[in-house]
Amino acid sequence: MARYVIKLGSNIVADEAGALRADLLTAVCDEVAARHEAGDSVVIVSSGAIARGIEVLELGSRPQAMADLQAASAVGQGKLYRVYDELLRERGITSAQVLLTFFDVGHRSHYLNARQTLGRLLEWGVVPVVNENDTTATEEISFGDNDFLAAQVAIMVGADRLVLLTNQDGLHQADPRTDPNAPLVDQISHPSQLSEYEIGQAPSGLGSGGMRSKVVAAEMATAAGIPTTVASGLREGALARALSGEPEGTRFAAQEERYSSFELWLRYAKPSRGTLTLDAGAERALREAGASLLPVGISGVEGDFEPGDAVELHGSGGLIGKGICNYSADELGRVAGLKSDEVEKIIGRSPEAAVHRDYLALG
Q1: In the chain, which ranges are E strands?
Q2: Closest to 165 (Cα-Cα) out of 83, 246, 45
Q3: What's the pLDDT tens digit per position in 215-246?
Q4: Which top CATH class is 271-362?
Q5: Partners of 172 in the beta sheet?
Q6: Per-domain residue ranges for the chain?
């Protein structure tokens, strides 16, 4: 039995006018039902609530103002989920609507709660239909057409494969919208290959992502050992082939170097609130001895953060890693570079590591 996450972009769910692609959604639910019948578990991550709201409200085009986008999502989300619910129910499958925000993913306790809920739904044989909660999201916490969300959900549920369906055949060696003859990249074995290609950032009409967000999502998932395929949802049979790992679109291989769930959450989901600059000794201790970061090894503090926030760690060669800080920016600014006995005199309590090694992700 396998566990799959399927993500549908806005331009797969709806056409350029915002009308739902009913035949395509029916075909997707047929494939989900077939996998479900075989004993597999499936999570659907679907964009398209805003696109659905735009069509219902007859807005004509995607709004720019955040309030308008949130209102359009509020109109469209229930109607979009109802389509999935009815299609799956007709096939004997119970579905569940799950709405998440970046806050839910970025805060560890909320992340663990979401993971537990999704896991229980899958145990019960339910197909979760996940979307960003656009009605409360803002520009700072947008998932970007749900590619990031899909990767995080795949990691949460321990998926065996992530499939990102888009309106392109996959990753091309150049942007096919400006270079129609750009060859398709069939396979990415290692993220280092990506530097060879021109990866577009501009989203298509109804979406908020672009190929770059899909590539980043693939990097996130493959770092967790999850093979990922970016393929066209408009091509007949593409989803079935992608789920089976057959040649289709662009396939990203799972990476041999694996990271723990906590490290992946810290790297990709927990937002950084500041930057700590380390001296050479501290950098060496972290890299070579697996030590915790003490205030004495910090030469610079930037940002506005509180205890429990994530901070980036920088050395002479740039980014060293990311960790959970035990001090506020104000406190750490006063004790940076000081030894433990001096730290205690200033803060009035027993000193602790600025970043403990158990809450640190190097890389």
Answers
A1: 3-8, 41-46, 95-100, 127-132, 161-166, 187-188, 228-232, 250-252, 272-278, 298-303, 310-315, 318-324, 360-362
A2: 45
A3: 889 988 999 999 999 999 999 999 999 999 99
A4: mainly beta
A5: 184
A6: 3-261, 271-362
What is the pTM (predicted TM-score) of this model? 0.81
Shortest CA distance to 155 belongs to which of 254, 242, 265, 46?
A: 265
pLDDT for residue 264: 83
Structure tokens given for 41: 């578990």
For 279-321, how does the pLDDT look when each residue is reduced to its tens digit (9 = 90+)? 999 999 999 999 999 999 999 999 999 999 999 999 988 999 9
Mention every residue, 6+ apart, whose C-beta is less than 8 A from residue 295.
327, 332, 335, 336, 337, 338, 340, 343, 351, 354
d(CA 186, CA 183): 9
Q: Give the architecture-level CATH label for domain 3-261.
A: 3-Layer(aba) Sandwich (3.40)
Q: What is the pLDDT of residue 208?
A: 46
Query: In a 10 Å sphere around its CB, with 0-12 CB exposed, 13-18 middle and 19+ buried, how is residue 79 labelled?
Result: middle
pLDDT in tens, 126-143: 999 998 876 666 544 455
| Distance from C-alpha of 254 to C-alpha of 188, rounded to nearest angstrom | 10
Closest CA to 47 of 134, 141, 145: 145
